[in-house]
Amino acid sequence: MISKLAAKIKETSPIVVGLDPQLKFLPEPLLEASFKEFGENPEGVCDAIFNFNKRIVDAVCDLVPAVKPQIAMYEVFGIPGLIAFDKTVKYCKEKGLIVIGDIKRGDIGSTSGAYAQGHLGHVTIGGKDYRGFEEDFATVNPYLGSDGVKPFIDVCKAEDKGIFILVKTSNPSSGELQDRVSDGRPIYEWMGEMVAKWGEDCMDGDYSNVGAVVGATYPEMGKVLRKIMPKSFILVPGYGAQGGKGADLVHFFNDDGLGAIINSSRGIIAAYKEEKYAKFGAEHFEEASRAAVLDMKEDIASALG
Q1: Minimal CA–CA distance to 205: which of 148, 258, 154, 140?
Q2: Is the Cβ–Cβ distance between 287 and 40 less than 8 Å?
Q3: Which of 75, 102, 185, 199 is 20 to 30 A removed from 69 (C-alpha atoms)?
Q4: What would the pLDDT profile of 138-195 be if each residue is shown by its tens digit?
Q5: Domain topology for 2-304
Q6: From residue 2, how far is each of 154, 171, 296 by CA, in Å?
Q7: Does the pLDDT value for residue 241 go beyond 90?
Q8: Cβ atoms within 10 A of the Cβ of 29, count?
C-alpha cells in the first residue's frame, strides 16, 4: 500500500487533508439545509458533515494523494457520526484518494486484532467476507508494546494495508513521556528503532507499510528519527494551526523527495474562517480549502527547493 501512496504523492503533492469536522467548522448555510431535512439533531449534523467533506474532497482531490478522517470527530455524534465516517471513507476512495483512518488504537491480543480487522481487514461470516470500515492505513498507539502492534502488522501483510505508529506526537505535553531518557536515549528514539524493526518484515518496494507519526512541531527530533527510520514513511501532523511551517519539514523527507506526508486539518477544512481566505465566504468554503492546499503545496515545495 505504501507504494501506491508514494506513486500518488509523485503525481500530486505530499499533503494529506485531515477531515476532522467539528460543529463550529460547519458553515451555517450547510447546517440549515441539513436541519431542514433531518431536524436539529445528530442526524442533521452528520448529514451536514458528509456534505461538508464531500464538497472539500471534490475541490482538492486533484491536488492531494490522501485524506485522514479523525474518527473521534464522528464518534462524538454516536451512530449517525459513524455512518458519516463510513460514507466519507467510501466517497474518498471513489474519488481515488488513499484514506488514512486516524483511529489511534492501542490494545493487545484479540482486541488489537479486532481493531485491525474492523478498520483494515475483514470478517468472514457464512463463508463470505465482510469489511467494516475500509481505510487503507490506520494510526496506532504502540505504548502497550509489540502485543498491540503485531496484530495490525499481520492484517497489513494479509491485506496490503499500512499503519502509522505514534513515535513523537505534535502536542506540547508529548515530552512528559516520549522525551524521558531510558538507557541514555529518549523514549521516542527507542520507539523509532522499534518501528524500523517492525517495518523490515512489511516492505512494499523501497518503503515499509509500517510508518511513523512525528510532529512538525519538533523538526530537530524529526531529523534524528528520519535517520533511525530510513525505510518508514513519516506522517507529519502539526502543520499550520499547530505552528508547523514548510521550513520545519525539510528533514522529514529522504533524498528521493519521498518518505513524508504532511497533514493539515483545520487549516484546510476551516480555511474560509481565516482572514486570508475570507473572500470566499461560507457559501464557497470548499474554494477556500482549495486555495489553502495550493498555498501549502507552494510552501512545502519552496522549503524543499
Answers
A1: 258
A2: no
A3: 199
A4: 999 998 999 999 999 999 999 999 999 999 998 889 999 999 999 999 999 999 999 9
A5: TIM Barrel (3.20.20)
A6: 16, 26, 22
A7: no
A8: 12
HSE, CB side, 13 Å, CA atoms: give it for residue 95: 24
Q: What does pTM read for this prediction?
A: 0.95
Active site residue 36: no
Tell me how far apart the alpha carbons of residues 38 and 27 are, in angstroms, rounded to a whole number.
Answer: 17
- The Cα–Cα gap between 219 and 244 comes to 9
Residue in this structure with the C-alpha cell 511551517, named with its chain if needed: 245
* Residue 232, pLDDT score: 97
Active-site residue, selected from the candidate residues 95, 104, 150, 273 = 104
Three-state secondary structure call for residue 165: strand
Angle at Cα 180 formed by Cα 151 and Cα 71, nearest 5°?
A: 40
Other C-beta atoms closer than 10 Å to the C-beta of 223 total: 13
